[in-house]
Design goal:
This protein is mainly α and 315 residues long. 79% of the residues lie in helices and 0% in strands. Pfam families: EamA.
Length: 315
């Protein structure tokens, strides 16, 4: 069986969807670990530059061209700033102050921004069942949010201005990523998933490297296992693997469905904290996970019913 035919199977799409959710869930903990040895923007720039170098090698080996015209250049620059540079800078900076679990949960607001943008720009309507699914899913995120503050080291103090600003920064990161999702849906359909990330990742890495050299103290840099390991993992798996698969799936699956990765990510983020970071797990986390999965089932049920109906009509 050809690889292309295999990739078109729904089971493979579901597996890839869950895989990128797992990897993204692990990145929140990995970011926190890496920042123990590397400055914020320097760490992020190394992640993106490494990803850019590996992508360049893959593009050459696979003989994949990076198409360039006016609309595609616009898309590349838009993704540079609103999919990579600004959102990730906000997240990295925020995780210096707020718990990684809380950051991942705040990022789960992305589907709501995606739903608004999809309705405005892509004319993708959101029916009642899908709306209920999103609401239930977010309710599950709230369950996890409460447990994070009580059992995972988060201390919510609204008297701390930096803490609140950090929370808002992550929400803006979610908004920017949602807008990037819509832009890829509109202008990136003809671009190979590997090619679509190369210029944005590389440009983001170069810009961040320059900014870091000016504003950050490189005397504090420690090239230890945590720092180097986090850069390699985040650069290869957290950037290339996830975004390439994500943008490929985005061409096959509605944007609002893909935005639900933001719901599953906090679940994996906390589970990884439990098994890797030796944190406690409670019943509320399991309840939150169930609510999130039910929400996803409701959102996806509309498309499942539609496919079954179309299949019966053809028969």
């Amino acid at each position: 069986m050809k690889i292309q035919n295999l990739l078109e199977k729904n089971g493979i799409k579901i597996f890839l969807f869950v895989l990128i959710c797992f990897i993204w869930g692990s990145t929140w903990f990995t970011i926190k670990v890496g920042l123990q040895e590397l400055p914020t923007l320097f760490s992020l720039s190394m992640r993106f530059l490494l990803a850019g170098i590996v992508l360049l090698i893959l593009l050459k080996k696979l003989n994949i061209q990076v198409p360039v015209n006016e609309k595609q250049l616009f898309l590349y620059f838009y993704l540079t700033f609103f999919s990579f540079l600004l959102p990730f800078s906000f997240v990295y900076w925020a995780e210096m102050t707020i718990p990684s679990n809380l950051a991942s949960i705040l990022f789960a607001t992305m589907p709501f921004f995606a739903a608004i943008f999809s309705k405005i720009f892509l004319k993708e309507d959101l029916n009642l069942i899908q709306g209920i699914g999103l609401f239930i899913g977010f309710a599950g995120v709230v369950f996890i949010f409460n447990i994070d503050l009580q059992h995972f080291g988060g201390v919510l103090s609204f008297e701390s201005e930096k803490f609140v600003i950090s929370m808002i920064a992550v929400i803006f990161s979610a908004l920017f990523n949602a807008s990037s999702l819509i832009m890829v849906k509109r202008f990136g359909g003809a671009i190979h998933p590997l090619a679509i990330n190369f210029l944005p990742l590389t440009l983001s890495g170069l810009i961040l490297f320059i900014i870091s050299s000016i504003f950050e103290n490189w005397d504090t840099i420690k090239f230890g296992v945590k720092g180097i390991g986090s850069v390699i993992y985040l650069g290869i798996f957290g950037s290339i693997v996830t975004f390439t698969v994500y943008y490929w799936l985005l061409k096959k699956v509605p944007a609002i469905i893909m935005s639900l990765t933001a719901f599953l990510t906090p679940v994996f983020a906390i589970l990884i904290g439990v098994f890797i970071g030796k944190e406690n797990i409670t019943a509320n986390i399991l309840i939150g996970a169930v609510l999130i999965l039910i929400g996803m089932l409701l959102v996806n049920s509309y498309f499942l019913v539609k496919k079954i109906t179309n299949f019966k009509e053809k028969k």
